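Troubleshooting log. The previous structure file for this entry was overwritten by mistake, so regenerating from the original sequence record. Sequence copied from the archived sheet and checked twice against the printout by T.R.
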Amino acid sequence: MPTSETAAGVPAEKERLRRAMKALRAAYWADAAARRNESNAQDPTAAGGESLARAAAALRAAADARICAAVCSLPRFAAAKTVFLYNAFGSEAGTSAIAARAKAEGKAVFYPRVRGREMELVRDEGQAFARGPFGIMEPAGPAEHVLPQFCVLPLLAADARFHRLGYGGGYYDRALAAWGDAAFKAGIGYDFQLLGTVPAEAHDVLTDALVTDARVLVRR
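Regenerated output below.
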């Protein structure tokens, strides 16, 4: 954790990193597809327009599948009866396959819904989702007071000390602090999002695991 001498600059450092990682994540798969096409010396028409978009989508889908397989292989996932998932937005790592696997195993799946400065949990029972205040699809239906046993968390960046950089609203940190150690916290993202170090503050909640398309780190 940062010392008192450096703590004052951490919020600004986080914001700079957020901007950089948002830009990197938004462009990553198209760039990866272009590099692969160039490396394979394919016909130039295969690297442009919809062909490049399809190649990027395929690379990202394969990465999401590897993340899903790794998450679902964790013993704490297998043991959990309640699973909390974020609904992927934009260039975030996808969670739909994890949700499908959890439901197939008879687990109760919950998604967040923003209310003021807090998140409430809504069980996924196949109901409609509507766009929330941040543009993310949120479930309709009654909120439930439940302690999820396994939590899948979004991230912009993370490091091997299990620090997770979120979007700055504090919604997840507040919820995770309230849930305590009973909730196993797995941050997921693509391997390029795992950095050498991520700026952190005393109130930041550590993840228990970090899962990417290339590796799994477990703290406890």
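Residues 1-7 have pLDDT under 50 and may be disordered. Archived copy saved in two places this time.
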